[in-house]
Specification:
The chain contains 15 helices and 19 strands. Helices cover 30% and strands 26% of the residues. It has 3 domains: 12-171, Rossmann fold; 188-308, Gcn5-related N-acetyltransferase (GNAT) (Aminopeptidase, 3-Layer(aba) Sandwich), CATH 3.40.630.30; 344-507, Gcn5-related N-acetyltransferase (GNAT) (Aminopeptidase), CATH 3.40.630.30. Helix 1 (55-62) runs parallel beside helix 5 (153-164), helix 6 crosses helix 7 (215-222) and helix 10 packs antiparallel against helix 11. The longest helix is centred in the C-terminal third of the chain and has 18 residues, at 461-478. The chain is elongated and about 85 Å long. The chain is an alpha/beta fold and 514 residues long. Strands 7, 8, 9, 10, 11, 12, 13, 14, 15, 16, 17, 18 and 19 form a 13-stranded mixed sheet that branches. This is N-acetyltransferase domain-containing protein. GO terms for molecular function: acyltransferase activity, transferring groups other than amino-acyl groups. Residues 183-333 form the N-acetyltransferase domain. Pfam families: Acetyltransf_1 (PF00583). It comes from Fusarium oxysporum f. sp. lycopersici (strain 4287 / CBS 123668 / FGSC 9935 / NRRL 34936).
Length: 514
């Protein structure tokens, strides 16, 4: 539907992609309409207008449909269980906000996002009582949007008229001739045989060259039957692939019933950005992951198999994800903490001559199984190292058990790391593509576990980490490797730099409870 505004009305219908207006054509006699409005100071502060400034909107709507329930929301409490209960009872939800780009407005938009998630399949109308940038509004992807300049009584009455009046398309006047409404994007399940070539082309069109993968490598990471769900958006007329989203589910620890849902990648062709494709993919897959039994955490990025650890920095439009409700302004777990991938080329830095510090390192043996997986499990739980237990357990259960390097202080096992080699079939090698993509002679080290809080340990973490990495370097070198890749490091930066490692990629670590 085009932009609609009557000659005398201050309210404008920017778009109605769900064909919801007039409301009464979608309502039964006893259907509930929920009106959610912010607790704000009235613009008209005369004694006769001392009540809730949005009461006139509720009253005006009730003239057409009697079942209107008006429930305010506040900045202090946000969307509460009471709001959720009413949303679940409602047939239609009208969410009102008084700002869009202001600090207050951004907070109200976050609450609108929450309400939209709770709505699930219920229609939601966003009413913006403020100035709105049409381009900015489209980025949020609300399917029905009404705008008015403020929330005086006249503004709200005009909104009610717009919500309840039939508007023939012949009366519609485009506000901006060059801004047609975006199409409705169909969500298609990804098919390996049919869609891989176009997905690979889209991957290379959207990502920096260091993240390029050949088609078979990308395909092998995506084809994980049983715990992968990927989706594609095609341009409706030509049918070309314009958007892709990869998702996985992985066990977080040894519990066997706790899962992490990974939004491993969302990519949209540059010619179709700003039209709601990415927003549509993000919201659809987040909703689907939440419905999977056992998924308690959703992350941006992926654990194993690995595509991108988190949001690549600085390549990602972080503001876009902040609008989706992701907090990335803190250096805390899941809220934007910095995570790095590192690369060392052995020829660039000689092996330092260090005393043993009472530590010995050797290949893992079958007898170490229990101690190693217990340490990995504790690391997973304590430090949010999602998927590490599963990775250690899978490696220990194969012929690649000796690729795990363990560190001992006396008889006490204090450290472990998994080494892997290009195309040798090991679990880590099959899950992390980047060493092989950098060069055939680059090996990898992953899941570095150090019992640095063990009261029986004499050495500090830096001392153990340094010697563990040197032991891994020796293991890789003896197998003919000329370099070493360390993924997903959230600490040990000084140690890695002292050993000659250079930063290969930087990410923001982002996850939240489902």
């Amino acid at each position: 539907m085009s932009t609609i505004q009557s000659q005398s009305s201050p309210a404008t219908l920017l778009w109605d992609h769900q064909d919801l207006i007039p409301l009464q054509k979608n309502l039964g006699e006893e259907d509930l309409v929920l009106l959610l409005t912010p607790a704000v100071v009235p613009l008209d502060q005369s004694p006769t207008n001392a009540g809730d400034p949005f009461e006139p909107l509720g009253k005006a709507l009730a003239r057409t449909h009697p079942w209107i329930r008006h429930v305010p929301y506040s900045k202090e409490r946000g969307i509460t269980g009471i709001h959720v209960a009413f949303i679940k009872r409602a047939r239609v939800v009208i969410f009102v906000l008084t700002g869009f780009s202001t600090e207050e407005g951004l907070f109200q938009l976050e609450l609108a996002e929450v309400a939209r998630e709770v709505c699930e399949e219920r229609p939601l109308v966003l009413v913006a009582c403020c100035e709105v940038s049409e381009k900015g509004a489209r980025a949020y992807g609300f399917p029905t949007l009404i705008q008015c300049p403020g929330y005086f009584v006249a503004d709200l009455q005009a909104v009610a008229v717009l919500l309840t009046s039939e508007r023939p398309t012949t009366e519609a006047t485009p506000k901006t001739r060059n801004s047609p409404p975006p199409p409705t994007w169909p969500l298609l399940k990804w098919d390996y045989d049919r869609d891989l070539p176009e997905t690979h082309a889209l991957w290379e069109a959207c990502l920096p060259s260091k993240f390029y993968l050949n088609r078979s490598t990308l395909g092998s990471r995506l084809k994980r039957d049983g715990y992968a769900m990927h989706y594609l958006v095609r341009e409706p007329h030509k049918g070309e692939a314009i958007g892709f989203c990869a998702t996985f589910t992985t066990f977080t620890d040894s519990s066997g019933d706790r899962l992490i849902g990974s939004i491993a990648a969302i990519i949209v062709h540059k010619d179709f950005r700003g039209q709601g494709v990415g927003r549509f993919l993000h919201d659809e897959v987040a909703s689907k992951l939440k419905k999977i039994r056992g998924v308690g955490i959703i992350q941006l990025g992926s654990t194993f198999p690995r595509l991108l650890y988190g949001l690549p920095v600085p390549e990602t439009d972080t503001e876009w994800f902040e609008k989706r409700g992701w907090n990335m302004k803190e250096s805390t777990p899941g809220n934007g903490r910095r995570v790095l991938d590192w690369l060392l080329r052995f020829a660039d830095h000689p092996v330092p001559d260090l005393a043993s510090a009472g530590l010995t390192f050797r290949p893992c043996q079958t007898a170490d199984y229990q101690k190693v997986v217990e340490m990995a499990n504790k690391e997973s739980q304590k430090r949010y190292r999602f998927g590490w237990y599963d990775q250690y357990a899978k490696t220990m259960d194969t012929c690649y058990v000796n690729d795990i390097v363990v560190g001992l202080e006396g008889e006490n096992l204090v450290a472990a790391a998994i080494t892997y080699f290009p195309n040798n079939g090991s679990p880590c090698g099959a899950d992390i593509p980047w060493p092989a993509s950098i060069g055939q002679g680059i090996g990898g080290v992953s899941c570095i576990c150090i019992k640095d809080e063990d009261p029986d340990m004499v050495n500090r973490r830096d001392s153990v980490a340094t010697r563990l990495l040197l032991a891994c370097r020796q293991t890789l070198s003896e197998r003919g490797m000329v370099g070493m890749f360390v993924d997903g490091s959230r600490s040990d930066e000084n140690v890695l730099q002292s050993l000659g490692f250079c930063k290969w990629a930087e990410y923001k670590e982002l996850w939240r409870k489902a």
